[in-house]
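Quick note —
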Amino acid sequence: MRNLLLVFVMTISTEISANELTSVRQQELLNMLKHDCGSCHGLPPKGGLGPSLMPEALAGKSDALLADAIQNGRAGTAMPPWKSFLTVDETAWLIQQLRTH
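Predicted structure written out below.
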């Protein structure tokens, strides 16, 4: 049920998130992606302690899977949950950034 709800929210969030995030918040998220995510995923995020976040590495992964990993972390790995710091809309926006840059 949680995954179905997450898929629904991600579909809606992807459509509205870019319009709702201020340019200041977008910059904060890009900074977080570079520094916080990059500390494990590498700079550029080609992999390190965590897997590659390059567009080609994400191509076979659904937005829902990626959102779940970001929001809830990955048990048994160094990936922490980020839901205390990121809204679902912000997570959707970050996923789109990763897929296109």
